[in-house]
Amino acid sequence: MKEKIGSNAGIVWNALSGHGEMNLKDVKKVTKLTEKDLYAALGWLSREDKVTIVENDKEVFVSMV
User: Fold this and answer.
1) How far, in Å, CA of 57 to CA of 11, rounded?
2) How are beta strands 59-64 and 51-56 bridged, if at all?
3) How far apart are the first and last CA of the chain?
4) For the chain, which terminal residue's Cβ has fewer other Cβ atoms within 10 angstroms, N or C?
5) pLDDT one-digit tens code per residue, 34-59
């Protein structure tokens, strides 16, 4: 599982580097990851202090640190 999560984290990282800050819906759409895989990848990136996750008006936004 670690390898898959790490690979998916790379997919999310590349999406953010190409698009900048995005809401979760757009990250999911761009990466084509399942919700479960997306959240695991974001957890990985968050744990490594690579992304910032912010809730604003009931919408969650993700950006690179």
Assistant:
1) 26
2) antiparallel
3) 25
4) N
5) 999 999 999 999 999 999 999 999 99
CA distance 36 to 20: 22
Q: What is the mean pLDDT of the chain?
A: 97
Give percent above pLDDT 70 in the chain.
100
Spatial distance between the Cα atoms of 2 and 52, rounded to a whole number of angstroms = 21
| CATH class given for the domain over 2-64 | mainly alpha
Q: Write out the two tokens for 41.
A: 């990848």
What pTM does this model have? 0.93
How many residues in the chain?
Answer: 65
Using CB atoms within 10 Å of the CB of residue 22, give its burial: 0 to 12 exposed, 13 to 18 middle, 19+ buried.
Answer: buried
The structure tokens 């990136």 sit at: 45
